[in-house]
TrEMBL record:
Residues 592-845 form the EAL domain. SMART domains: EAL, GGDEF, PAC, PAS. InterPro entries: Biofilm_reg_signaling (IPR052155), EAL_dom (IPR001633), EAL_sf (IPR035919), GGDEF_dom (IPR000160), Nucleotide_cyclase (IPR029787), PAC (IPR001610), PAS (IPR000014), PAS-assoc_C (IPR000700). It comes from Pseudoxanthomonas composti. Residues 168-218 form the PAS domain. This is EAL domain-containing protein.
Length: 852
């Protein structure tokens, strides 16, 4: 059977023809022709499939929004170009990975609700926050739908970036809140969708109420501009919804039934249509409070009352006075005055006399006057009034004075409030710096009050609270401290906040030093109870310096400076105490300034050197490391104790430059010892928290490279202050140092505000028990308890432990039994010059060399 020649068949048609041919048992030529047609159809199908795939990919990549195809378990099967650009990642970092690579916050079973929705034949829509390759986040709205990909059940997800829309919404809301006009949006069901702050203010809605509750019909009576009551369907918003047209500048009055208050609004209502709708779905109403304009246009006498201006006239010939009703109200007279004496009866005596003087001069010279007078109404309320008058002398025998009275009490109270505000610290309500300087200057210039004492108060450990709990808690602490100082001082002194956490107290002591001293004791006693903030508790003390006038200073700045000198001394000696100013303290301040000056030049003048105190294995007595200790010898000041000049360097910021010198010198010395055949000795160096801002990790890396040392040759010791410097840069610096192999430890652990959650996050190697605690063991129970606690913390966190300040065999035995493996102190050696330390190393006690 011969089949006619014809174009290639569709694949299914070819299969059907082959089946018929098999059933009919066609001869070989016919069957060969049919197979040729099948081959042509298959090739055409493959070409169509390839072209279809190219068209699909082109369409897929042409989508402007990120589009991804996900498997049932959330694996990304495909991602278009817009997605690669939006997520700022390479294609291979996303495709083949779970969708959580773009949104790590998704829960483990996040695909369950998606498939529940898609299986119902619906689209799944959700707003989430996706993550770019650099870790930044951006909001997206994701639409998901069913899709078959390579024959498998999948879903296609389109993510629309909402960042610009969110920004636009924010700007729109900021604009709405900045308007003086009220704005309300509600839907056809009269539900309020939005109201700005001005709307809430106009309707008198408090923070405890909602506008929806306040605007119920039962609370208000609505009238038009002629006072006729409006039905609800006649109100501008309802008419805009019903007619679909703007209702412009309608004047309506709203009377609040409970408050018995009438407000007038000029309102414009604009209908808004949803896409594809021919009826408005909501309406926006914009309105202004024009109550005062309505009243002014209605009644002139009400204008007088609103402006609080009244009129008066005095017939001097017959001594008769006429006043308007508003003038009578301003003066607070029980009845209208008839004589000038009646009108003046409400004025204070000095101002009553002043009014007579200006009117007498007016009668002699003519013209007018404008003066301000103070009085008291018949109910006892004080008032201020501005009186303007001029002479009308048409009849010489009966001259008239006419004028106005204006109530300016509010202005005067505002002036007084501004005056007080200018002199008041806004946080604590105390006198501010300018006010106390003015008051102190006034008192010092007054010979009758020349003998006074000034207390300069600085809070101890305030910065720790500020750093740990934040500035809001710091402000609460300052307010509480102000209350405690006020209660302690009572009426005997004046308290001011001088700045930051510093306060001043002025008191007249009459030359008796015990007055200021008793006041200082009372303030210290007031600070004994701990300050509580939530679950946190802090013991905050006060350092107080006392200076007395005139012997310690006859000028405000001089007296304050000397009280500051006394405060500085007590703060650096003991804290939580008071100290009188003495000339010796002034000399100490001069010495401090001299020290700071010399300290600034010490590195350039090569005045520093290092000594090395051995760190010893407490069990075997073997030297295993050393701590580098700085010494300073100045040609003018002589040998200076480190505990003195290090504190100054921290205060002035010179510690950064000095710390760089110490690190370099310690690395140089370790290199020299290594070249002398002593191996690589680990040296511990104290590092200030201020050095973190000096790119500490880079500096250490450069030094290790310069002297060809392993990171393990260096141990950096930080004070506990770094525990509260929880900035990302601080944590990054710790991580970089640890990556160099440098050992990290916390020095003098337990002296400051240790917080275990900070300690747990920092990649440190060990803790160092302060000499402050080791010197009391084993006899002092408190020191024993602290050492036991620090040891337990170190063990629980897997940290090394070193004890410093060991001076006796009993201390060594106690610490050894406690599990402290390493110690240093005078029992073994003081700080040694480099050559002497090297000699000890060459002796019987060889150090454990650091592995390079």
């Amino acid at each position: 059977m011969n089949l006619p020649s014809q174009p290639p068949l569709e694949p299914q048609a070819v299969l059907d023809a082959l089946e018929r041919a098999r059933s009919a048992q066609l001869p070989e030529p016919a069957l060969r022709e049919l197979l040729d047609q099948a081959a042509q159809a298959l090739a055409a199908c493959l070409r169509d499939q390839e072209e279809s795939g190219l068209r699909w990919r082109a369409l897929f990549d042409a989508m402007p929004d990120p589009v991804s195809i996900l498997s049932e378990d959330g694996t990304v099967l495909a991602l278009n170009k817009a997605g690669v650009e939006a997520y700022q990642r390479v294609h291979g970092d996303i495709v083949g990975k779970n969708i959580r690579v773009l949104n790590p916050d998704l829960p483990r079973d996040h695909m369950v609700p998606v498939w529940e929705t898609l299986n119902r034949g619906e689209s799944y829509v959700i707003e989430v926050t996706n993550m770019r390759g650099d870790g930044t986040r951006f909001p997206v709205e994701v639409h998901s739908a069913n899709y078959r990909f390579d024959g498998h059940k999948s879903l296609v997800a389109v993510a629309r970036d909402l960042s610009r829309r969110r920004e636009a919404e924010t700007r729109y809301r900021e604009l709405m809140e900045a308007l003086d006009c009220g704005v309300i949006v509600h839907n056809r069901e009269r539900q309020i969708l939005y109201a700005n702050g001005a709307a809430l203010r106009i309707f008198g809605v408090s923070a405890r109420m909602s506008l929806s509750e306040e605007l119920v019909h039962e609370r208000w009576r609505v009238v038009d501009e002629d006072g006729r009551e409006l039905e609800e369907h006649d109100m501008p918003p309802q008419r805009a919804l019903a007619e679909g047209r703007i209702q412009e500048s309608r004047l309506i009055g709203l009377y609040h039934r409970q408050r018995k208050e009438l407000i007038w609004l000029s309102i414009t209502s604009v209908p808004q249509f949803a896409p594809g709708q021919d009826r408005p779905s909501q309406v926006t109403s914009i309105f202004s409070d024009v109550t005062h304009l309505k009243r002014e246009s209605a009644l002139f006498d009400r204008t007088q009352a609103l402006a609080q201006i009244g009129g008066w006239e005095w017939d001097t010939g017959r001594d008769l006075v006429y006043v308007t009703a508003e003038a009578q109200r301003i003066l607070g007279a029980a009845r209208a005055p008839e004589r000038i004496a009646d009108m003046l009866a409400c004025l204070e005596e000095p101002d009553r006399r002043r009014f007579r003087d200006v009117t007498a001069r007016l009668m002699r010279e003519g013209g007018g006057f404008d003066t301000e007078l103070q009085g008291r109404r018949h109910d006892g309320q004080p008032f201020w009034v501005r009186v303007i008058g001029e002479l009308e002398a048409s009849d010489p025998a009966s001259a008239r004075v006419i004028g106005t009275l204006q109530d300016i009490s509010l202005d005067k109270r505002s002036e007084e409030a501004l005056r007080v505000q200018a002199r008041t610290d806004p946080l604590t309500g105390l006198m501010n710096r300018d006010a106390v300087l003015t008051e102190l200057g006034r008192r010092l210039s007054d010979a009758a009050h020349g003998q006074l004492a000034l207390l300069y108060i600085d809070l101890d450990r305030f910065k720790a609270v500020n750093d740990v709990l934040g500035h809001n808690t710091g402000d609460q602490l300052l307010m509480e401290a102000a209350h405690r100082i006020l209660d302690a001082v009572g009426p005997s002194g004046q308290v001011a906040r001088f700045g930051g956490d510093e306060f001043l107290v002025l008191c007249e002591d009459g030359g008796d030093p015990r007055v200021a001293e008793c006041m200082a004791d009372a303030i210290l006693h007031a600070f004994e109870p701990a300050f509580r903030f939530g679950q946190e508790e802090f013991n905050i003390g006060a350092s107080i310096g006392i200076a007395r006038a005139p012997q310690d200073g006859a000028r405000p700045q001089q007296l304050i400076q000397n009280a500051d000198v006394a405060m500085y001394d007590v703060k650096h000696r003991t804290r939580n105490a008071w100290q009188d100013f003495t000339p010796e303290l002034a000399q100490k301040q001069q010495d401090r300034v001299l020290m700071e000056t010399q300290l600034r030049r010490a590195v350039d003048n090569e005045e520093f050197h290092l000594v090395y105190q051995p760190q010893v294995d407490l069990r075997r007595g073997q030297i295993i490391a050393a701590e580098a200790l700085i010494r300073w010898s100045n040609h003018q000041l002589g040998e200076q104790r480190p505990d003195l000049f290090i504190g100054h360097a921290e205060t002035t910021g010179d510690i950064v430059r000095i710390g760089r010198w110490v690190l370099r010198e310690a690395c140089r010395q370790v290199r020299q010892w290594r070249d002398e055949g002593l191996g690589v000795i680990r040296v511990a160096v104290n590092v200030s928290y201020r050095q973190f801002a000096d790119d500490l990790a880079r500096h250490v890396r450069e030094l290790l490279e310069e002297f060809d040392l392993p990171g393990s040759a260096l141990e950096l010791e930080f004070t506990e202050r770094v525990l509260i410097e929880d900035a990302p840069a601080t944590l990054r610096t710790f991580a970089e140092l640890r990556a160099l192999g440098v050992l990290l430890s916390i020095d003098d652990f337990g002296e400051g505000y240790s917080a275990l959650n900070y300690l747990r996050r920092l990649p440190i190697h060990g803790l160092k028990i302060s000499q402050l605690f080791t010197e009391g063991v084993p006899g002092n129970r408190s020191d024993v308890a602290v050492c036991q606690a620090v040891s337990a913390i170190a063990r629980s966190l897997g940290l090394g432990l070193v004890a410093e300040g060991i001076e006796s065999e009993s201390q060594r035995q106690f610490l050894l039994q406690l599990g402290v493996p390493v110690g240093q102190g005078f029992l073994f050696a003081p700080g040694l010059p480099p050559d002497e330390f090297a000699s000890r190393l060459r002796g019987a006690q060889r150090p454990q060399a650091v592995q390079a």
